[in-house]
Each structure stands twice: as C-alpha cells, then as structure tokens.
C-alpha cells in the first residue's frame, strides 16, 4: 500500500474538472515536489499539490498508477508559488495544470535538471550582492520615494517623468532590501525582451554579474533552465525578466518591481491570458512583499487605484540634472500638400540636428514599405487570401507578407486581376520612411563633413540573433544620425544624443473604435518624447514633433504640457460616464470556427445559457460580433463581451459559466477561450 498523492499535470486548457490527478507514491512527498508521472501513454512532469479539502472524492488505490521518478535534487515549489498559480488559473479561467506547467522551464522535464541543480548547489556560497561602484547620491525626489518605500506597505506607483531616475530608485530599493537581508531576492519585470540587456547591465554593474539572472522567452531552453534553477535554489539575488518571470520560483522573495507598468506587453495574448502586472500585485500581497510599479504614463487602472487610496503614488516630476522635457511642436498637416510624408519645417529641424552632430528619432507604428499594394487600373489590392486583411508590401525583398498569418508571395510583375503593370504602394511603413529620408537628406552633412546616416530599427531589421544589440550599440556610439523605427525604439532606451523625436503619422489611433486607443497613443507619444534630451546638457533645445490632421484634439493640449494627470483626469471622466474600465470589469468569450455563423452560433448558445447562473444578475452579456480582423489563416473569429460593475460577480459568473461552455457541442467549432480583463476589444 503506497501513499495517495495529488499531482498537477499538463492538462488541456479547460479541463478544470478532476484536477489534480491522484497517483500512488512509495513515500509521502511534500506539496510542491516535482515528479514524473504517467499520463495516458506518455510520461510527463508534474507538481505534487496540496490535498483537496476533505481529501476529495474517495479513490480506489488499485486503480491508481504509481508516480515515476522524483526530481529529488530540487526543493519543492513553495506554498506562495502554488497559491499564485492556483489564483492565476482560477482568475483567468484556465486549468491548474496548464498554468503550473507553463510556469516551469521546458527542460525541467528532463532529469538533467537535477544534475544541474546539484552542480549549482555544490558551488561557492550563494551569490552575495555588493555594490561594485559608487552609486550617485539620490536626488531629493528619489530620496523621498525611497523613504516612502521603506516606511509604508504599498503597493507603490512610482509616477516619474522619463529620465527622472526611476531605475535608480529600483536599484536603491533592491540595495536596501539586500542590506537588510543578504539572502533576499528581488523580482524586476520589464515589458519587452529588448529592454532586458540594458537593465541587466545596470543591475550587474551595481551588484555584480553573478547576482543577476534573466528570464525571458528570447533565451535558449538551457539558459532558461539555468536561470530558473538559480532563482529556485535562492542563489540569484535579482531576477529580471519579461511577463513570464512573474511565475518564477523565488523562495526568499523580498521585493517586486514592475517597470513601465502601463505597457500592454504585460498582458499575455494567448493561452492563459494573464496580466503579469496584476499578478505581481497579487503575489506581493499574498507573500507580504512590497511592490513598486513604475511609469511616466501609468495605466488608468493604476492611476485610479491611487485616487482610491489602494496604491500609494510617489511622484518624481523632474528630470535628473535639471534636464528639460522636450518642447512639443505640432504640424498641421491640413496645410501641407496632399501626400506629404515629411513637412518642410520638420525636415529642416532634422537637418539642423545632423549639422550639430545630434541624433533624431522618427517613428511610425507600421513596418514594411507600404501597408497595401494596389492596381491603378482596376480595384485589385494586395488582400491576403487567408485573412480579412491586406498583405504588406516589403520592398527590400519584394514580397507581399501577411502580418496575421505569415502568408508570403513575391510581388507580382503585373496586376493579377487585369494584367496592368502599374501597381503602386498605398500608404507608408518604416521602410518607405527610411527610403524617403535618405533621399530628402542627401545634402545634409554631419559636423565632420560626412553625409547623414539613416538607419531603421523594427521587427524586420532585428530578426536575426544579435542584430538588435548591434543596432542599439551603433545608435549609442553615434554612428547613426537619424533612426527610423516602430514603437520598439520609443520605449525605455537611454539614448543620450537624441534631441529630436518625431511622430510622423499617429492620427489613426484618434479615430479607433477601441476605447483604449487614446490612452495607448498618449503614453506612446509621452514615452517617445522621453527619448529626447536625456542628456541634460543638450536637453534645452530638444523637441518632440507631431504631424497631425487634428491639432485641436484635446490630447495634444495635454501632451504639449507633458501633463499626464490632466490627460488621465479627462479620460477617466469619459470612462466613468460610459461605465467603462476601470469603472467596470470586462471579459471576452472568443470563438474560432470554420464559418462566422458557427462561431457566432456557439457564442449565442453561450449567451443564452447565462441567465440564472451565479452572478448573472450583475453581468451584462452583449451580442456576438465578428472580431476586428475577422478571418485569420482561414479561420473565422467572433467574440462576445461581458461587463459588470462588480469584479466578484463577474468572477462568480465565469466560474459557473465555464463548465456550461465545456458542455456545449457545436459542429465546426475549432476552439474557444475566455479573456478576463481584455486589453483589446
Ligand atoms: P528613468 O528610468 O526614470 O527614465 P533613469 O533611472 O534611467 O531614469 O535615469 C536617467 C539618467 O539619470 C540615467 O543615466 C541615470 O544614470 C541618471 N541618474 C539617475 N539618478 C541619478 C542621480 N541621483 N544622480 C545622478 N544621475 C542620476
Ligand atoms: Zn488591375
Ligand atoms: Zn493572412
């Protein structure tokens, strides 16, 4: 007779019933232990879980299969970790097994993990952090923020202008933590992989390279495993990573930092659609650990949490070294000839920068050469045959590429519909901007008499491994005079020589049907402005240029004054009147099917099953609608919006609804998923 063990295994997304599974072990195992167990014909990695209340339904031991190997070299995952995983699975309506196993590095399934752990455990005491170089004395604002972080429970919203020294506050907060407890661990989250090298360098410079590990999806599996184990064994003092790192195993966690907390990248957009920012706040609360969220343009959710006294707002309005924020200049594009890409005053301003040896950054949120290729004789456009979207024209390799499904073809020599050879690009992307700038700036000269150098940085130019680092290094070294890019270049980077930033065509977001579009645009423009004038000596003449057809839009008035609070207040007022988040809570049910009718029929049955369920009295169920990009890779997509003034009511409803959805059988339905607190509707 063996021991009854409850084990969480990788289960399909929605099979929440019957979790965890029961197995027989030779000896009792602590919850959190890692094991290998048979599942069907496979052997999978699993996590021993806490017994269900009352020990669950009685099981017949004779029916149970035995546990395989125990990953004995690895200490069990902590109760705090298990609680986080269980919360995330419940809140985001996914199975425990899916969330738990996705939170572990893929190679943990192999037994080499144990050997690696043993090797790491045998090394020099765990890394001790020692400040390696003398950090700058904190400014008054930084000192005040740090004092509040030391004295109060938080969570904190560090609302600091771009260049106000937020990162320095994180470094000092970590330093204070390690001074109190040399064995403590700090978790630092950043929104994008391309921001990790810069931040990692700053932490390593301060605390020593062996104290910091990174965790993000850009790492190889062995690298991830090593970083994960170093964190799990309590050897790494600082774990720095993207959203997935919120699930890192950190036995001595003492502080959580979420940098650029407003960034939409913190929301996972597939599988369990969790918000790493929100889970960080939950984790901090559950583990009694302080949480610092930082941003120059906080999410309206976090801003409102400060209004309500749930978060403590710490303000740092001034740039370090008395540097000035850039002057904002709007160009009214209604007064420019049709089709103008760069207005003459903007070009002149860029030319001046080149002559002075300063850099300019020009951004446009669209990669490729042109979003559409069109025939001038008939109505042919470069539609994707698999999606309800146009394929983007990439001139560099003369391809038409679908940015939704990846379908790629050579550009046709002539119109495929009428044979006309005059097919032309419509609209503009970063490739086209780069090409035009090279032409327009052909006469511009640097102080050394050399022609101006224009470079482009976007998902295409940085696809190859190492390309991003190389391009960033070139910008930092001053080898580039004008950098053209997508929003990738507007975030977080500490470029020292940029004194001009230009948004050439940001208007689309002003007329979007997405109610979050103005919030996203405002923060994008503020972040972009934050790249200019970061060197105080050059900041006085720094400028942010915006070309727009709607210069009278109220958002630009706030942007001119760098006045986020004014913008936030105006937006929150609109949201309150319209009962939109953060004054209401939302969830989406998304469905994918062979036809739009089938997808919508499933959603309609789901809606019909709603009334009478727990919480339904407080939940509004809207009608099914096609998604904005309705067809992707020949799959039709539709969605249904749920809204409630009460988060608990919405949660109760979703929990009751989920098993009903599992029972719905609709022929031709491919899959469905629930998205709680969706960012894009
Ligand atoms: P943010 O994260 O708010 O954009 P950073 O922390 O990157 O700002 O700081 C901007 C620049 O100012 C960095 O180069 C940083 O090294 C420098 N800096 C930050 N705090 C101080 C300080 N107290 N004294 C001198 N320089 C500082
Ligand atoms: Zn044609
Ligand atoms: Zn496509």
From TrEMBL:
Zn(2+) 1 binds at residues 375, 378, 415, 418. Zn(2+) 2 binds at residues 384, 387, 402, 405. Its cofactor is Zn(2+). InterPro entries: DEAD/DEAH_box_helicase_dom (IPR011545), Helicase_ATP-bd (IPR014001), Helicase_C-like (IPR001650), P-loop_NTPase (IPR027417), PriA (IPR005259), PriA_3primeBD (IPR041222), PriA_3primeBD_sf (IPR042115), PriA_C (IPR041236). Keywords: ATP-binding, DNA replication, DNA-binding, Helicase, Hydrolase, Isomerase, Metal-binding, Nucleotide-binding, Primosome, Zinc. Coiled coil: none annotated. It catalyses: Couples ATP hydrolysis with the unwinding of duplex DNA by translocating in the 3'-5' direction; ATP + H2O = ADP + phosphate + H(+). Binds 2 zinc ions per subunit. Belongs to the helicase family. PriA subfamily. Initiates the restart of stalled replication forks, which reloads the replicative helicase on sites other than the origin of replication. Recognizes and binds to abandoned replication forks and remodels them to uncover a helicase loading site. Promotes assembly of the primosome at these replication forks. Component of the replication restart primosome. This is Replication restart protein PriA. The gene is priA.
């Amino acid at each position: 007779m063996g021991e009854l063990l409850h084990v969480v295994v990788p289960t399909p997304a929605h099979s929440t019933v019957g979790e965890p599974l029961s197995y027989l072990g030779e000896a009792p195992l602590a919850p959190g232990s890692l094991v290998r167990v048979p599942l069907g014909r496979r052997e999978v990695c699993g996590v021993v879980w806490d017994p269900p209340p009352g020990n669950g339904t009685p099981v017949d031991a004779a029916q149970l299969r035995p546990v395989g190997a125990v990953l004995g070299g690895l200490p069990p995952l902590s109760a705090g970790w298990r609680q986080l995983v269980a919360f995330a699975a419940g809140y985001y309506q996914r199975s425990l097994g899916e969330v738990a196993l996705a939170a572990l590095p893929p190679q943990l399934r192999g037994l080499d993990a144990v050997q690696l752990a043993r090797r790491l455990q045998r090394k020099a005491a765990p890394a001790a952090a020692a400040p390696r170089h003398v950090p700058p004395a904190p400014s008054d604002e930084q000192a005040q923020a740090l004092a509040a972080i030391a004295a109060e429970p938080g969570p904190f919203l560090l609302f600091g202008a771009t260049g106000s020294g937020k990162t320095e506050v994180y470094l000092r907060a970590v330093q204070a933590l390690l001074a109190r407890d040399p064995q403590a661990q700090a978790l630092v989250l950043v929104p994008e992989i391309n921001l990790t090298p810069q931040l990692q360098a700053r932490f390593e410079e301060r605390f020593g390279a062996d104290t910091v590990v990174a965790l993000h999806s850009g790492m190889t599996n062995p690298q991830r495993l090593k970083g994960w184990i170093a964190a799990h064994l309590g050897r790494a003092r600082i774990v720095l990573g993207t959203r997935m790192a919120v699930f890192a195993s950190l036995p001595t966690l003492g502080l959580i930092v979420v940098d650029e907390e407003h960034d939409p990248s913190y929301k996972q957009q597939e599988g369990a659609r969790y918000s790493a920012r929100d889970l960080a706040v939950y984790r901090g609360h559950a583990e009694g650990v302080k949480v610092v969220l930082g941003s120059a343009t906080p999410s309206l959710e976090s801003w409102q949490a400060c209004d309500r006294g749930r978060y403590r707002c710490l303000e740092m309005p001034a740039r370090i070294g008395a540097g000035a924020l850039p002057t904002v200049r709007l160009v009214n594009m209604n007064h420019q000839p049709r089709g103008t890409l760069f207005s003459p005053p903007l070009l002149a301003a860029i030319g001046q920068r080149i002559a002075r040896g300063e850099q300019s950054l020009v951004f446009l949120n669209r990669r490729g050469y042109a979003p559409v290729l069109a025939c001038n004789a008939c109505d042919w456009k470069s539609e994707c045959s698999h999606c309800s979207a146009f394929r983007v024209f990439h001139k560099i390799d003369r391809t038409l590429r679908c940015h939704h499904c990846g379908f790629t073809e050579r550009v046709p020599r002539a119109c495929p519909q009428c044979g006309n050879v005059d097919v032309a690009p419509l609209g503009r992307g970063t490739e086209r901007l780069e090409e035009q700038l090279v032409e327009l700036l052909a006469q511009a000269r640097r102080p050394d008499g050399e022609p101006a150098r224009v470079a482009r940085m976007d998902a295409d130019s940085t696809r190859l491994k190492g390309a991003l680092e190389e391009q960033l290094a070139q910008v930092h070294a001053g080898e580039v005079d004008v950098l053209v890019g997508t929003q990738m270049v507007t975030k977080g980077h500490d470029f020292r020589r940029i004194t001009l930033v230009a948004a050439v065509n940001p208007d689309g977001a002003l007329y979007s049907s997405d109610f979050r579009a103005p919030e996203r645009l405002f923060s994008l423009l503020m972040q972009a402005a934050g790249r200019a004038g970061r060197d105080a000596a050059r900041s006085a003449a720094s400028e942010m240029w915006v070309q727009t057809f709607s210069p009278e839009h109220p958002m630009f008035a706030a942007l001119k004054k760098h006045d986020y609070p004014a913008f936030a207040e105006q937006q929150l007022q609109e949201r309150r009147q319209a009962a939109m988040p953060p004054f209401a809570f939302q969830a989406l049910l998304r469905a994918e099917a062979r036809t739009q009718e089938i997808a919508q029929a499933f959603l309609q049955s789901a809606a019909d099953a709603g009334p009478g369920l727990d919480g339904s009295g407080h939940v509004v169920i809207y009608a099914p609608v096609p998604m904005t990009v309705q067809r992707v890779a020949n799959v039709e997509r539709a969605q249904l919006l749920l809204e409630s003034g009460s988060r608990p009511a919405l949660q109760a409803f979703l929990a009751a609804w989920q098993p009903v959805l599992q029972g719905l059988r609709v022929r031709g339905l491919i899959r469905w998923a629930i998205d709680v607190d969706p960012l894009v509707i």
